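Q: Can I borrow your eye for a moment on a structure tokenisation matter? Would you mind producing a protein record, from residues through to fold? Write it directly below this note and I will take it from there.
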Amino acid sequence: MESIISKILDQIDLQLLNALQNESQLSNTELAKMVNLSPPATHARVKRLESEGYIDRHVAILNQEKLGFDLLCFIFMSTNIHQADKLELLEKELKAMPEVLECYCLTGEYDYLLKVAKKDRKDLEGFIRKLNQLGITRIQTSLALREIKYSTTLPIS
């Protein structure tokens, strides 16, 4: 990974990305001091990193529990849908569900993995009923008991 990244991004780009992925609200002046560049040069680099897709978006990460979402669920799903257009429709439906935080198409025993935030068991039960109406043939749900590690930071340096 080091050799591929270093050919595309220089050390200052990597420092900027690391700083921003840890604290996206750093001011341009603070960033410039961290990487020893002028604020205009720093701003230009950040804009380039955004336009080239290295920075996907800036977000605030909310506290799930404080907002009443007591259940963090991992839902493995299988479907008997094999037509591309129907799979696209299923995936469009999954993307539109606000409680689905993440959704992955998998290899192996299951076709999809969902990470879902729900307020309680009744809320989860209603969500599973919605999934069953989408042509899901098999569902296995696991509830997170506690968080051991959570990170949005990629190990780029």
Remarks:
- Residues 39-51 form the longest helix (13 residues).
